[in-house]
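Students often ask why we bother predicting the structure of a whole assembly rather than each chain alone. The short answer is interfaces. A chain on its own may look different once its partners are present, and contacts between molecules only exist in the joint model. In this exercise we take two input lines together and write out one structure for the complete complex. Read the inputs first and try to guess which parts will touch.
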Amino acid sequence: MSVILEVKGATKRYGGLVAVNNVSFSVNEGEILSVIGPNGAGKSTLFKLIASFVQTSAGEVLLRGERISDLAPHTVARKGVVRTFQETTIFKSMTVRENIIVAHHLRSRASLLGFFLGTGLAKADEALFAESADGIIDFLGLQSIRDELASNLPQGHLRALGMAIGLATQPTVLLLDEPFAGMNHDETMHMVALVRRLRDERRVTVLLVEHDMPAVMKISDRIVVLNFGEKIAEGTPGEIQNNPKVIEAYLGAEDAAIGM
Amino acid sequence: MSNKQRWAAVAFFLLVVLVVVPAAIAASGRVDLYYTLTAVALLSIASAGVWLTFYIGRINIGQGAYALVGGYVSALLITKGDISFWWTLPLAGMFCALLSVLIGLPILRLRGVYFAMVTLVLTEVSRLTALALPFTNGAKGITSIKLPAELNIFGLTIIPDFSTLANPKLGFYWMAAIMMVLTYAVLWRIVNSRLGHLCRSLQQNEELASSIGVNIAWLRVLAYAISSFFGGIAGASFVAISQSLYPSSFQITDSVNFMLNCFLGGLGFVFGPMLGTLLLYFGWDLLFATGRFQLLIYSSLMIALMLWLPNGVLSLMDRKGARS
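Now the answer. The structure tokens for the assembled complex follow.
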């Protein structure tokens, strides 16, 4: 398996606070890699660094050897690294289908002027997007809510819609921010299966940040553990479960919480 | 609505605006209505621009600035450059679009009330600039501007010289009405093409829009530039009609009115600002009879409308549709 994404000494400082400190790891093509760590460990910041929503203070992120740090977020998305959101971020006043169609923006061949004038290429694009959106709806099993306004959707469907939006961009690397948060066991297992299918059927490399340990252990090929902004461990789920540093980080954090 | 019905509606609208209304005015002898309706048409063009900035999620209270700038560009080109009004019209629009790119690049990063405040200031800045610049003739303004001259292309007269017209008022009315129709056709097409969908994505969630690959900075500037273009051509047209221009020709009140037109008609409807302008303009005139209570009644009505019809007058149509 070849390396697709490489994080090299990524560092983010906010004033005196170091949110992410010299973190390095690499992601193989077709892998599901989870980033875990106690609250405030810098997981979300690391994600923002990778998707270039914040600028690095030091270090860099490489996609297939090409530097993608500090580019505009939409440029990074164009290169194939797409982030979905922790907060259920969607286009609220559009229907599910409209949400997914609009997310196909990256794949349009016609220019905006072309769309304005309604050229043949633009019409072909629109037809393609509609077809692809229906394909994604079928893939994620969203047929029943196809024409529902996104603002009316329950939590679970919103998460799936967020993923659908991400998929519509045809990412090579998809960053999922807490895809299982607030889900019960059945929903989580359903989502785990979905993420696996993303990788298996759509050849998407998945990077995810998550708190739900059983789900992470089940889904991940490899895990990277952060604590206080630093990487303290990396390995397969089995290795991570028995890593004394990881156990200390989690138990230590809980002890501190109890001590308060 | 099917395609056929849509074209029928467009044809009906054109017939009313271009034929029925002028005929009715001629029959009734209320010649002053020509000017009133011309003003409504032109103001609704500027409002269309404001509406487009609403569509990308920005409250724009600065359209008066671009109307004034467009007016000055046209007035100066006509008086000093001896250029025909018909050429100054697109030039005024383009100048405003360019200017709005320069202004928009920094200020479009702001959202909500912060953007609104800056645009509000823009109107005042443009007035003060017009007062101060050496070639705008200060508070005395620019007066006795020529009426639009003949426009001919390859020797073919497209538009006759307005000073030779028997009824220049009707000429101006037609000009404004046609410009309004074109503006709203463009606006409708924008909203119903991918550009509009992207604008909506921007309005609803800029962060997500940029993560699906939308160049949000560029799109914001583009929408703002189109918006300002409309402001510029509306301002330039007013110059042609009034044949004069002062720094106070477009003020903060006008900027606020452009915004209110959009609110009143409905932010969710392309033709909202057009209806809003008509209602606001005539509403204000009708209340003239109430004398010193005019402003009080007017403001109360506006507040009531916003409370009961927050999505504008056109949202009444939706309700009716939902009930039946």
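Check your guess against this: The radius of gyration of chain B is 20 Å.
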